[in-house]
Every structure is written in structure tokens, then in C-alpha cells.
Amino acid sequence: MASTHDSLDIRNVATYPVADAARYLAIPAGTLRSWLHGRSYPTTNGTRYSEPLILLPDINNPQLSFTNLVEAHVLRVIRQNHQIRLDKVRTALDYVEQKFRLPHPLARIQFQTDGMDLFLESVGQLLNASRHGQLAMQKTLRHLLERIEWDQEGLAQRLFPLVQLQRADAPRILVIDPRISFGRPVIVNTGIPVEAIIDRFRAGEDLKELAEDYGFSHRQIEEVLRYEIALSKTA
């Protein structure tokens, strides 16, 4: 059960509609909904149900918290790149959560240190996965976890969104911080929403004008537009 401190933390407040969260993370909205609500699937022994992978802060509110956003960021590689079944992922996450005795282990630095090994060990046992497969997943997970900034208590506090997993070393130009601009993606160290720049570009302003007006480099503006182009393909 969440502590009083957790319940009051802005990171655990329902903030993001599913459509927005899916866009920010480049995850299909239908996929994200299945992680939030679980889903039924057929088996040779009849229909089975997979429990949700992400627990919302308020069962009566369909919006995600920042902590949920971080969880989805990490789950992305597990489900999309390695196609691990929902029920197996849920079982492995329950194992990690039980070991840590803490909620939302994917959004805690312990997962990056000890928890990842526990998770991969559990998945390997459930699926009889090869060591090679586990190492491949570990490598990609580590890239995603490096896009998270942790506070002194080991909780995720900022997320540097990554659209393409192949570009794990992409510069940290965009950030999602629940304390800035209502948690929308902004340019690092400025607080300027990505949407503001995109809207002006759509209105006909070119890269040079935008860079000069905001005092940004061309690289920063190009990264914003690259982010928007990639997200529009997943909408």
C-alpha cells in the first residue's frame, strides 16, 4: 500500500490521458491500455486473463501518473522488442515487487541495480529463455533506464523520452518533469513546451527563425521536430 508521502507526491498524481502518454512514449494507445487494464487471451485450455502491468493511482480516473509513465517507458522494450507475454511479465514484476517490498519497482533505482537481474532471472525461469536472450533484453533495458534521472531516495524524477530504441544514445534535449509545464515534454533547462515549437513550425516558421527566437541550436530544434515526426507515426 502506498504511504501518505507517496500519495501526496506530484509524481503519483493522475495527470496524463492515455492518448498523451502513448504519444510521449511512442507506444500505440491500444497497447498502453492493455498494460493498464489487462486483457483476455485464448489458450488451448480456454480464455485466460492477464492482470494489468501498470497500476493507476486512482481506479476511478483513467489517467496515468508520472510514475506510470516511467513504468511504461521501461515496459516498452520487454513487450515490444522481446514479445514477453503479459502474464509472464506480470508474474516477474510481482516477484521483483515482493523482493523489494515496494510498489512500482520499475520506477525505482533498485530495479536498475539489483532488480533487473531478479526480473530477468524470473522471466528466464518462466520462459526457459536462453542466456543470450536475457543479455539482449538487459542491454536494451539498461539503455532505457539511463534515460531516467533519480532523486536522492532512488525514485524516478525526470524522464528523457526516447522515440527510437535504436537511438538509445540520442542527446538529452527533451525532458518530461512532473514539476514543469504540467508534465508535458519540454526543452531541457528551459521549461519551453515542445508543443509550442511544433505549433510555430506548422504555422510556417523555419528552423533558423525558431532557433534564433528561442536562442537554441539547430540541433535542439531538429531533435524536437524529429521527436514530433516519430510520434505522429504512432498516433
From TrEMBL:
Classification via Pfam families: DUF433, HTH_66
Record-linked Gene3D superfamilies: Winged helix-like DNA-binding domain superfamily/Winged helix DNA-binding domain
Residue span, Putative antitoxin VapB45-like DNA-binding HTH domain: 16-93
Protein name, as recorded: DUF433 domain-containing protein
Organism in which the protein naturally occurs: Vasconcelosia minhoensis LEGE 07310
